[in-house]
Amino acid sequence: MKKVGVAILGLGVVGSGTYKILIEHREFYKKNHGVDINVESVLELKTERALALGIEENKIAANIAEICSNPEVDIVVEVMGGVEPAKTFVLAALNAGKSVVTSNKELFCKYSHELEKTARKNKCGLFYEASCVGGVPVIRTLIDNLQGNKILSMTGIINGTTNFILTKMSDCGASYSEVLKEAQRLGYAEADPTADVEGFDAAYKLSILSSLSFHTKIPFSKVYREGITDIDIHDINYGKRLGYALKLLAVGKNSDSGIEVRVHPAFIKNSHPLANVNDSYNAVYITGDSVEDVMLYGRGAGALPTGSAIVGDIIYCATHDNFNYSTFNNTEKADPSTKFVTNFESAYYLRLDAKDKAGVLSKVSSVLSKHNISVAEVIQENRKVNGVVPLIIVTHETFEKNVNKAVDEINSVENLAKVASVIRVVS
Length: 427
Ligand code: HSE
What we know:
five-stranded parallel beta sheet; binds L-homoserine; alpha/beta
């Protein structure tokens, strides 16, 4: 039987989950795949983590060089996260002829071109299913199953922490900061939550998924990004009255106007399947020109779900002799011919703090109409909050530049209204 040796770099949540799956399923993989996958080595500074998993001391490597020179190791699994030292370790493994399986979205998003070049040179495999949306099999779906399509768009909830926070805010009516504390207490949010709540994690993943979808490198720098830290519970509540759920959405589109890639909070109609993706669950809704709509849903994080994606890659690597590389033009920058759309077209939700006097609504409407913005829905409260009356306006589809100009103009008029929130509405 073919024997395949694995080394795991990092025994945090995902590394430990991967180890457990490999140990528990070893006989199952032998029987079903005809391959004996053995964990030969681990690299983990906190050796107590390895010992707690029952890993023998002689399998705990002192450094990456020891793993690279170990002839029993065929596949190196990188689950450390961050760019360095992960990048140095992955390049060392590839240069030593080891195939690599990684869950590292930041590393793959920023350096996929360099990693792939090194993998090709050394005829090694490079796999990254676990880098995006944890256990949800979206990468191989794009690489293999959907290749017959021109992908027109993808809209995803691809960060579990922010989805957990927004779901709890909506369910409990609590503020962002209250729910963040609860999420940290429960272990959903990190002590430093910046990468999740400011949308970096989702933007790394969208960069990778849109590169695969649109067949050209979509650099991280081209992904428009806004996080959820300024979300006000009042907007979630008004959104509910309008029949919307608020989500941190990742949106990628490819049209005649060009490619647009953006991560930001957005309202989505309750009737859309993504509106019902709650708590820490993730989903990606893909539209292809032939297949039409496909939605993949599941756990975007966690030891066993992400471990499932990693082990799937390990088995694929262990059972294939020739490796395929990117199905997109994997260069450092986007192809110079790629046009990026930055003046997004969307419907918008505006919350204004309006002066309580006659003619305000008509003046606001005339500013909107001057900028070619058509109003779809209005809620005007008849009670004052802190001396002003909340005025909620939902527009029809329009261009973002028009909305920004209208907001500036409304804010500049004395004694009219101040725009408190602007949130995109995704149809
Ligand atoms: N921190 C990520 C999330 C999981 O909250 O979805 C790993 O990508």
